[in-house]
Amino acid sequence: MGEPQQIIPTEKSDLVGAVAQLLAEGYRLVQIGCSTLESAYELNYSFDKEYRFKNLRITVTPGEEVPSISAVYPNAFLYENEIHDLFGIIIRNINIDYRGTLYRTAVKTPFSVENVKLPEPPKQKADATAQSKDKEKQQTETTEGKKEQKE
Amino acid sequence: MAHKNVIPFGPQHPVLPEPIHFDLVTEDERIVDAIPSISYVHRGLERLIEKRDFVDFVHVADRICGLCSFMHSMGYCQAVEEIMGIEVPERALYLRTIWAELSRIHSHIFWLGVAADAFGFESLFMQSLRLREVILDIFEATTGARVILGVCKVGGVRRDIDAETLKGIVQRLAALKKDLDELCSVFINDYSIKHRLAGVGYISQQDAYTLGCVGPMARASGLSMDMRTLGYAAYKHLDVEPMVESGGDCYARCLVRIRETFHSIELIRQAAGKIPEGPVELKVKGAPNGEYFSRVEQPRGEVIHYAKGNGSRFLQRFRVRVPTFSNIPAMIKVLKGSEVADVPNIILTLDPCISCTER
User: Fold this and answer.
1) What is the pLDDT of residues B329-350, one digit of tens each?
2) CB contact under 8 A, B295 and A53
3) I want to staple B33 with a disulfide (CB 3.0 to 4.6 A). Which of B9, B25, B70, B106 is the partner?
4) Residue B79, Cβ neighbours under 10 Å: how many?
């Protein structure tokens, strides 16, 4: 099976400190990714050192500002500009700030909470059984009603 | 003090097969700053995940790029398989490895040709593309396609390669190796090529690491970093060795790709010798519920396919971090301080794939 991966939930206020700690330990920044949740965003900061893969995860609400880590890892600026342009998250003090011009998209912030419709999770079995029973009951009632009408 | 000028480079330029733009701030002939600009042809493939069943989405992943098509579908499948706990049949893993290494050879030979074209060595470009045809023919014979292979699927692969064909592939690659020896000796020894590439576009080992370089660009600066050593697919059974050079310049990047091409031929020979009998696919039941970062070594370096699902047939999120995106910060660093005449060579030796970047 695949490599072990560590995901560490982190407070937004601790982010820059934790990232600086990883730099001091010799980790490289692999990527910064973002996912849209129901009414929030999840940011994953991925690092690697000698094939040990570690992620710091912060969750922010729409409109909430996030500190830039580009002062610690200079290559973070591209990821941060990307997240700003695609998700609409405001990231403060990026070392090279494109101010929303890195991506030319037809829809502004296409991955924002307003634009993304998350897939419905599958219904639980118990719910599904109850629903099918309701459906059967409804069908029986309708058939009986029709029979009565005919008579 | 020299006057500062801004020279626009790209998005359309003879050495750029795909659109990327740089504003080169120059003082006389020396570049003092470079501001990149991408997204001329951004396709928004990541959001297609909302409309495609996770099993069908592999066809979209396949189309992210023409040169590393197979690697994208393999990375995506690996992520989904990992979330679902699918044990892919061993034979399928070997077949994936063989197609992945063929893709690497095809991409590197193509790069050698394009690089030769960039520094004006037209005949070398023609010879490179002629040799690349061998790989495309193998693709066609084994998958039915030459560019977008479409053979990877969640749970295995769509096609098998019989023992006779595998033997034939190994023989054809042995013949290709002889031709490549001749071709590569020109790249390695030719005076004019050395003159254009050696000492140009230098990036130190420290800069390569802190700026997030991956693939041949990192290895040419002395970083021994190759995701194949993680042992995904069948690499755990093969003698994978990262090809490392210490020069850090355009010439070193060229050498790394040449050595990797020969190494890939050797890996295919090993895989063909060790491939076990058995099924090539597994029936997939259920839907992914969880998340995983799949890491694969593409011809241009480490690529990440992140998939997140909630148990439905449609994934919540699919993200690709391509190697070119990771190499752009280093590209800016390398361009600063270089001569305007060296810009095409520097950009080409980083082998940017804008098709991947504009996923």
Assistant:
1) 888 888 888 888 888 888 888 7
2) yes
3) B25
4) 30
